[in-house]
Amino acid sequence: MTSTPRLFSGMQPSADSLHLGNYIGALVQWKDLQISHDAYFCIVDLHAITVPQSPAHLRENTRRTAAQYIAAGIDPSRSTLFVQSHVAAHSQLAWLLNTLTGFGEASRMTQFKDKAHRAGTDAASLGLFAYPTLMAADILLYQSMIVPVGEDQRQHIELTRDLAARFNSRFGDTFTIPEPMILKDTAKIYDLQNPTAKMSKTAESSAGVLWLLDDPAETKKKIMRAVTDTDGAIVFDPENKPGVSNLLTIHAVLSGQSVASLEAEFARHGYGDLKKALAEIVVDTFAPIRARTLELLNDPGELDRVLAGNAARASHTAESTLAAAYDRMGFLRRG
Length: 335
Known about the structure:
The chain has 14 helices and 5 strands. The chain is mainly alpha-helical. The strands form 2 sheets. A 3-stranded parallel sheet has the order 1-2-3. The longest helix is centred in the last third of the chain and has 30 residues, at 300-329. It is globular. The model has no long low-confidence stretch (mean pLDDT 93).
C-alpha cells in the first residue's frame, strides 16, 4: 500500500467525444486529485458493452476517451491511466463477487431499474444487471480508499462496501473498504436545449450538448441557440430560470468568477451578450484540449504504447489482490 491514499474512478467510452459536464464534473477534479492521491483512472469499456456496441466504434471511442483524459490534464506518468479490458482481473473478481451478491440486493439498484424500465426488462442484459458487481471489482482490485463519483453512483459504492465487508468477514481481511468522495454538484451542467436535464452523452439530441471535440463554430452556435426565457433578466434562479442559470453556472466555473459578480456584470445586458461572452470562454477552454486530443489520435501507436504500460502497472496491483481473493476462497493453486 502506498503512503498516499489510493483512489479509483473511470468513465465509459460510450461516445466519440466527452462533453462539458464530463470535463467539469470529473476531469477537472481528477486532475487535482492525482496530485494528492495514488490515482487509478480507467476507461471502463467492459461496462460499455452492457448495452449494444459497434465493435469498430467501441475500439475508436476507447482511444478517443483515453486521449481526452490526457489532453484534459490526466498525466499517465503520475496516474495509472488504463483500459479496463486490458486487465483480466476485473472480470475475474467480478465473478467472485457475483456469487456473494443476492438477487434481491442487485434488483434494488436504482440505475438498473431506471435503465431496464426505459428499454424494457426483457431487453436488459444480464451484464447490465451485474454492472454494480463489476464496478465493485474495479474498485476493490486496487485496494482503493477513495472513489470519486457523482451522487447517482452512491448506491453502487454502498454495495461495494457491503461486498468488501462480507468477503472480509467470511474469508478473512482481503479488501480495503472504500469511502465515496461525492464530487461537487454545485457545478452540475445541464443540457442547453433542455436545461432541466443533465448534459449527457445519451441525450436524444446533441443540439444541447457541448462536446469537447466539436468544431469551435459548432460550439458557438449551440451556445447562441441555448434555451433561456422571455423576461430578459440575467439572474441566477434555477427553479424559474433554469436556462439562464445554467449559462451563468458554466461561465462561473470556467472563468473563476462568482455567479453574483456575473449577475452584476450582465445586469444591464441582454441574453445575447451573456451567450457571446460564454461562447468565447468555452471555445478558449476547449481549444487546447481539442488540439492535444487530435495530436494524440494522429499517433495511435504511441497512445496504445502508453496505455499498455499503464495496464501493466495496473495488472501488477490487480493480480496481487485477485490471487489473495482466490486463495482465501479456497481455489486450488496452480502448480
